[in-house]
Model the fold of this input.
Amino acid sequence: MYLINYLSLQLAQTLFVAASRYRVAQDLVGARDGINVVFTVPASEHYVHNLPFFSVAVYLNGMRLALLDDYIVQESGGPGTGYNTVVLNEAPFADDHLFADYVTP
Done:
């Protein structure tokens, strides 16, 4: 309790994220056809992209992909609209499992 008094509000929110803001193993929305590389989070949600604390964690067939090496993040509505898009380096096929863990703002 006393620790929060000495932290900035932003740092306190980063360290103590409410469990209701976590999304785990959410399927990403987009065509899995071996060609499409652009996917979004479901239900018009956005995710926090606040390095080094939080960003979206993307998994392909159960293996975690590396940010910048395997995918990048984007704001589909332009700067300042909120991150909701993942662009993969390689397109998944129809039988691949693509999902993500993230924190909503």
Q: What stands out?
A: The chain has one domain: 21-103. The longest helix spans residues 9-15. Residues 1-5 have pLDDT under 50 and may be disordered. The beta strands are 22-27, 38-40, 57-60, 63-64, 71-74, 85-88, 98-103.
